[in-house]
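Hi there. Long-time user, first ticket. I'm pasting a complex I've been working with (about 352 residues overall). I'd like to know whether the download I got is complete or cut off, because the file seemed smaller than I expected. Thanks.
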Amino acid sequence: MTRAARIHSRSVLAVLLTIMVVLVFVVAILAGRQLSIFGNDAPSLSPADGQSAYTYDFVIEPGTADRIAADEVVDVVPQNLTVRVGESIRIVNDDSVNHTVGVFYVPAGRTLTQHFNSPGVLEGTCDVHPSGRFKLTVVE
Amino acid sequence: MNGRLRRVIATVATTVATTAALVSCGSYQYSGAQVEPLPEVGQVVLPDLSHGGELTPMQASAGHLMAVYFGYTSCPDLCPTTMSDLGAALNRLDDPSLIEPAMVTVDPDRDLATLAAYVDAFFPTGRAFGTSDRRQLSDAAEAFGVTYSVDPNPDAATDPSAEPVVVSHSSALYLVNAKGQIVLTWTFGTTVDDLTADLQHALADRSLMGTP
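Hi, the file is complete. Here it is re-exported in full:
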């Protein structure tokens, strides 16, 4: 092999290796965002950087049921929420009591995630808003 | 081109293909809600009216998924719509037999004798669950997060055509794996397209199927 051919070969090699490294980073980033579909230990549910991977993130704090029983005003979610197709919601129930949030039922100590793939209206009773209702409208 | 370069190019091509597959697979977002840790319902046992009332745990057969709905046969809207949509989704699957449709009646006083035929009208291999044991039913509903009530209809006293009771119930459809875990919950109104896509992906998703 001539010197020129060797240089050309090394250049091509360098470019290809660079592409591989970039691809590995892309996969790592995408996997970090999507791992919630792969199992219970989804890192996206507990982002290390403190930023939620979900568009809307609500937490039902411990003692919420007690506050409701004591007639305190509890408004974990808004009465009406409009989201777009492609967005997502996460509701973390850190309380010791199961809660109903519109059409969603979130057992105590569990986390519910919902991705919105189609437009529609999801409405139901809600025990973590003073109105007792939670209406979720999904738009294009 | 020398052999070393060929090997590198082959490696890169493989990496690109694998990356594309991973990105394609990982980008799917289920339309059904996911609850973590997964709620366990496999401990719930109910009489299977489609099989002589045999007590059956609420979990799918190995390699299958069970789609469970709580409703009643006199329901004018939610129940038949959900059953119909599920049926349409199953018809689009490559192998519909991998999904086991099931309905639990929240109105056992009127449904125990008719539920099996009702389910069979939608799904020939569907399963009908019902019990006259109020506690058994309420325990099952609680495990799934289902709410329901059956109350006397005040209009029935003056209107002979009115239903004798008023039934209300939550309207979610649950997907249960062979471990007896609820892996997806669809709200009423989920489109047939979304339902179909979720079922197709779930059947290929080992973590949802509960297979090692």
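A couple of notes from our side: Residues 3-34 of chain A form the longest helix (32 residues). The helical segments of chain A are 3-34, 64-69.
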